[in-house]
Every structure is written in structure tokens, then in C-alpha cells.
Amino acid sequence: MQKIQQQSHRVRVLLQLLLILTPVLVGYFWLTVETPYDFLRNTGIVQTSFDINQLAETPLTLGTRLLAMLTSMIYCSIIMYALKILIQLFRNYENRQIFTLENATCYQKLGYSVFYWVGGSIFYQALMTLILTFNNPPNHHMIAFGFEGIDFLTLLIGAIIVIISWIMKEGYLLADEQNYTI
């Protein structure tokens, strides 16, 4: 049990670090993209699902960067929500709370956050293509919607996580009922 506590503590600290870094890196990305300070893309740390050079025919203005950053922050809030849930889950593991109703609820929320992620990606892609082509000449604006095979797989994984959460809830309720049976 002590090993579980130690590993849970390490994972929780890592997740907390990621929670803090996510908005910082999103802001840094959009303020430096297509500039000499574009460290994240030049090193391959960040890869976008769209080619900024193909979409934006003119250099990105500060307004475009800020709108893109705001859109990305809204989309990344789904990741931050999932990170918050995972932090709570590993905090429970750290406190020796393994098979609890709260953990089952965490898994359910985590599964739903995967659904939110896929739904958000559809709107994110549409908004981002519109924002990046906003300063293009007339008749060169674009909006793109997409749903790819990986999105279907992601929805399937989310459904599996939700089903596991239901099983965990039922298992908790059965164990709780047996505890009160004399």
C-alpha cells in the first residue's frame, strides 16, 4: 500500500505541474508562433492539426494571436478539467482511498471529459480556421469542420471509461450493502 501512496504522490505532483503549465504554454505558443521565438514548434514539442502558414496568407496580427489564444485556452480548459479530476483521483489513492464512491465518480467525470474533448475539437477546428483566415483578402476566408477516425476511437475510449465507472459504482454499492448486512 505504501508503494501505491508513493507513486500516487509522484503522479499527482506531475499532474499539478501539467495543470499549471498548460495555460502558460498555450499563451507562449500563440504569442511566439511564426516568430524567431517559436521554440515549441521548431523543436517539435507542439504540433498543430492545421498548418498556420497555409491558412494565414498574411503575418498574424496581435488581435489574431489573442483570439487564437483565447480559443485555445477555452479548448484546453477541457484538458485542465480532466487534469483536475485526475489530481483528485490520485490524491484519494495517496490517502488510501482506493475503492470509493468518490473515485467511481471521478472516473465517470473523466469519461465525460473525453466526450467534451471530442465535441470541443469540432468547434475548435472551425473557430481556429476562421480566426487564422480572418485577415486574408476577401474570398479567402475559410471555416473547416472535421471528425476523423481518431475522434471515433476517442469516443469509444470515453464510453469504456464511463462503463468502468458504472461498474465501480455498482461494486461500491454492493460492498456497502454487504457491510450493513448482519
From TrEMBL:
Source taxon at top rank: Bacteria
Keywords: Membrane, Transmembrane, Transmembrane helix
InterPro entries: DUF2975
Transmembrane segments: 12-31, 66-90, 110-131, 143-168
Protein name in UniProt: DUF2975 domain-containing protein
